[in-house]
Structures are given as C-alpha cells and as structure tokens.
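F.,

This is the one I mentioned.
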C-alpha cells in the first residue's frame, strides 16, 4: 500500500519518469478528477512559461460596433481577451471566434499570428458551426455531471460522445457503469441530474482548451481504459490530443467548444438507455445519457420545450461505440467528437 501511495503522489507531481500501472485500481472518481485537473493546470502553466519573450500581433476586428485593430500578445492573448476590449456584451455573448473568415477558433485558445477576427453568437445568419459547438459543449458538461453524480463506491468510466448532430434531437454521452448491470434511473434521479447540470451552467465557467502530447494524455487518463485506448488513434495525425476543461472536469474532444457554461440556457436531461455490445466485446454494455438544451437568450414556451423533451427521450440513433459490426468504431467516434 505504501508503494502504491508513493507512486500516486509522484504521479500527481507530474514526474514523467514514474510509471504507475496500478493507478486505475485505487483511484476513486473524485481522485481521478482532481488528478487530471492538477496535471492539466501544470501543463497549461508550463506552456505559458515556454512562450518566453512576448511578441506582439495585430488582430483586425470586424464587427459591431466598429472595426478596429488590437495589438495583442502572441500565444497568450485569446479571442475572449479581445472581446473584453470591445465590451462586456461581446465577452458574455460571443460563443465562437472566426479567424481570417474561415477558421473557427475557441474563445479561450491563444492566438498565434496576425489575423482578422470575427465573433459568432447564436443569432448569426449561418449558425451551423456555432450550433455544433453548442451541442458538443453540452455533451462535455453532461460528462462532467454524470461523473460527479454517483457515489465513489460506483465506478464511472466515461467512454465517448459522437460528433454533434442537431437533427438527432438530443446531445449524448455514452458511459460505462461496470457495477450497475441493469440500472434504470428513477424520475427523481433524472431530475437530480438535470438540477446538477443547471447548477454547473449557472456558474458561468469558462471552457478551456489545451493541446497536449500523447504521452501526457495517456498519463492523465490512466484510470480510464476506454479513453486510453482511444488516445493513440486521436494522436496519430500530429502527436497531439486536444483536451477541454470545465470546472475540474477534463475530457477529450477535437472541438471547438463554446466560451462558457452560462451560454447554455434552458435544458433537461431526458433519458438513459442501455446499449449492449457483442458477446466477445471487452465492454459488454454502456449507458447512453441524453439531454436537450437551448442557448441562453433563445426563448421557447413550456409547451414547445416539452415537445423537444419528449423527442429527446427516444434513443438517439447515433452509432453505438460498442456496436458488434465494427471493432474500430470507438476510436473513430472519439476522434470526431
């Protein structure tokens, strides 16, 4: 036991030379969350310190109230920092940034070179990309709520969520609950989960992005065999894995995400469906958590929203990551999320 604890604390201090294969055996969900958050913050600090001498870049803003040029810090300043220079309204309502008219950029991702900058909220003329970012962010927050909802005696292993499909009627997260073979949540449990989600969104927490090495990503998710198996294929393109953090919850997604949780308005966690794998699958079953939400500021009466809730209760048709028809689906689903 002493050896295990010593290994844990060395890993917690981000000693890359320490291997701790037994971590997944004794880390509770709460401990795993704290550990990932700690490593995320250490890596973020390291990347900022690595910038060294600060260089300036010119950011040409296009939009209301008027176009202007901002002089910002290369690899440090973010679109959110630019929005704060404009007004509080821009900072609160801008969900996505668009660089040079074509590149969709997270609001909290540092700018790397001279560029033109536009902000997108949920009322833009062509909202496809911002809507996808919204749906994707809802799945991220759902994963955070599910992880925190269960007691430490119930292991919760997040598996993946697919790329956003607004037409499906629900955002989802597929979760492995290995000790609950036939769990059927009560209406009260569903209500409690929705309430936890609302509490998290009302905090207005930033959704932060960080690109890390494959090695660090594997270390951060050593307690979750599903994420660990997905990371190599995700990192295959450039050796990097994109992480997002909301509060202390850290997860994997290619992004982009919206700026902060307060941009998620009216919502409901609507249903949980059991997904079954093939007999020879390593994962015999997953639970598909589903929900529906509207962006803040989008008004819909109770009756109309109840129709959306009923639709979102139906099993989302997105491909199951443990479908018996393919053995590569989990990696491809995670890579596209």
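My design for it:
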């Amino acid at each position: 036991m002493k050896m295990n604890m010593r290994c844990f604390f060395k890993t917690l201090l981000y000693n890359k030379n320490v291997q701790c294969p037994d971590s997944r055996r004794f880390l509770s969900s709460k401990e795993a969350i704290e550990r990932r958050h700690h490593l995320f913050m250490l890596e973020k600090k390291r990347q900022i310190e690595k910038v060294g001498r600060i260089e300036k870049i010119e950011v040409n803003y296009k939009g209301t109230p008027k176009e202007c040029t901002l002089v910002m810090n290369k690899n440090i300043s973010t679109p959110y920092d630019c929005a704060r220079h404009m007004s509080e309204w821009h900072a609160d309502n801008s969900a996505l940034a668009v660089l040079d008219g074509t590149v969709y950029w997270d609001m909290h991702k540092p700018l790397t070179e001279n560029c033109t900058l536009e902000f997108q909220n949920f009322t833009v003329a062509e909202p496809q990309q911002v809507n996808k970012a919204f749906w994707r962010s809802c799945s991220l927050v759902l994963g955070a709520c599910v992880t925190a909802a269960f007691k430490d005696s119930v292991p919760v292993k997040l598996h993946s969520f697919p790329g956003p499909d607004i037409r499906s009627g629900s955002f989802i997260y597929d979760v492995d609950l290995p000790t609950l073979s036939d769990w059927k949540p009560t209406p009260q449990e569903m209500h409690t989960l929705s309430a936890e989600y609302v509490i998290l969104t009302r905090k207005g927490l930033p959704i932060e992005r960080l690109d890390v090495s494959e090695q660090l990503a594997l270390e951060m998710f050593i307690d979750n065999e599903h994420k660990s198996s997905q990371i190599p294929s995700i990192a295959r393109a450039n050796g990097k894995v994109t992480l997002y953090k909301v509060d202390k919850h850290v997860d994997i997604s290619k992004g982009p995400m919206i700026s902060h949780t307060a941009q998620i308005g009216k919502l409901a966690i609507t249903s949980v469906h059991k997904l079954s794998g093939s007999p020879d699958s390593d994962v015999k079953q997953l639970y598909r958590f589903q929900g529906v939400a509207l962006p803040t500021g989008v008004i819909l009466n109770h009756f109309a929203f109840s129709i959306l809730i009923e639709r979102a209760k139906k099993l989302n048709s997105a491909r199951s990551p443990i479908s018996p028809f393919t053995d590569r689906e989990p990696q491809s689903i995670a890579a596209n999320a």
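The chain has two domains: 56-126, 129-209+223-336.

Talk soon.
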